């Protein structure tokens, strides 16, 4: 094969130049010699032409044989050009946090948390988000639709400057019990029921405590259904979910026909989108942003009741988040402002004032709540539910007579109102009108009306029947147990921690408090002598007290510790006894119990009853025990006291006492924490 250069030279039809001799005597071609030994311009041109021809023939081959998908190449080029132009035209605008259309230093401050986002941006985003429908989302309801929300978790301790009642539990049964937590779950943190301390009211089984249940709030984009919200009755009577099977058909139909509340006036319908945007922030839990958004709306529309109501709800939510009573007080004021603005719809006035009264009660402002409810009843005199709430407000301040008058008015207008019936029966029983109370309590429970399904009503109906000698009491106790109000037919305490060991009688070893029991039994004579030294020499009684547990006879007590607090004046009278107990925090620190002397005179009978909580056990140390005639029954097991010996039982189970001896019986009662309660629970459970 001929050399390649010859082929190239032949193609160009060049003449081979003559050889020349260089200065070293070596022959070289003339072209090389002329170029100093490198490529000449002609050769460079030659190479260029060869490459060009190769490129042309390659292109022809690519096109002819369809080796490249030009359509795909063109599309990719377009896509690249589009994406690149996006960057050039402001792709960083996604990080525009202050709404000025670009990304700059101010945006960085917002993203780093050094500056708050403008309200206008928040409202705009909320509007845009609410305008976008998810593919499978349910369409938003119309202006007047109502979807009640879950209750607010009001888990902060309310202020109440008033002193808690500290008198012993036995005499607390002559009035209405205003406490209502049904079950206290064993949880690692303090529960709402444990933190809410309203004004103590005497009454139901030996205790005083009120459970507050929050009022449902409006969804974003919709308004609350005022008629269906059992707000204030829940302050007194915590309500369980209603079972539709237990409701008469006509009652269910009546509920279905309830009108939706109208919270927007004519003007506010024109700004509904803005209200909904702010409300959406609140519903998402962005309460700080919601407060700012509603504040902006109030500035823009100062005469809008709905905007101000939204501001109050947002402040309410912020108070919960901050655990701030001051913020809640601000919300209470804003509720009032909203209700007093002109052009507020009747439904908004009702919802606003009911919410205000409920929050006042939460803070312990019972008389303020009463005034708010009285105003509501004046505005809506035909609304029986509001009158029922007013009756509860009277009960919360201990004004049973006024409450009784209110419920008599309700029953005169609506004789089948179950809520009014159970409360009216409750009041009659507190007046010791046992027989008269039974039909009201029974009919009210059988009505199934909201607010009637409460353990205290089952408790008091059964108790009233027992006192009348009617064995159907246990039918109602069983029904209360089936409804989840009682742990069993025998164990009917209402303020419980789930999961604690439950048995009527305990041994010292069972409790783990052996040292305390030994101290009491070793020193029983010292304790007896001090007890006798403070007894009234004339009557043979301690401080007289009125109770509602005795069928007959005399029963008195002398208290040393109540709700975990030492009664200093009493302990000064019996210093040795108090000194013995100081080193036993399971007793002196038991906030759900007492330490006291108890004396019972001959001829006394104590009705079957139960204590208020399963969180304690009760020790009885016999001090002066007649040889015969004194006994105590717990469930179906009856026992007798012995001098110098300790009996231990769980008084959340039904128990009954007889004193048929010919002289007084004197015992020392020491309540202790249930041994299975954790230290944290002992510290955080509310007093009883």
From TrEMBL:
Keyword Disulfide bond among record annotations: yes
Pfam families, per database record: Asp-B-Hydro_N, Asp_Arg_Hydrox, TPR_6
Disordered: annotated segments: 126-258
Domain Aspartyl/asparaginy/proline hydroxylase: 521-675
Subcellular location: Endomembrane system; Membrane
Topological category with respect to the lipid bilayer: Single-pass membrane protein; Single-pass type II membrane protein
Source superkingdom: Eukaryota
UniProt key word Cytoplasm: no
Compositionally biased spans, kind Polar residues: 187-204
Residue ranges of the TM segments: 44-65
Keywords assigned: Disulfide bond, Glycoprotein, Membrane, Phosphoprotein, Transmembrane, Transmembrane helix
Biased composition (Acidic residues): 212-236
Domain Aspartyl beta-hydroxylase/Triadin: from-to ranges: 37-113
MF terms in GO: peptidyl-aspartic acid 3-dioxygenase activity
Bias (Basic and acidic residues): 126-136, 159-170, 238-253
InterPro entries: Asp-B-hydro/Triadin_dom, Asp/Arg/Pro-Hydrxlase, ASPH, IPNS-like_sf, TPR-like_helical_dom_sf, TPR_rpt
A Gene Ontology term for the protein's cellular component: endoplasmic reticulum
Family (UniProt): Belongs to the aspartyl/asparaginyl beta-hydroxylase family.
Entry protein name: Aspartate beta-hydroxylase
Origin species: Oncorhynchus kisutch (Coho salmon)
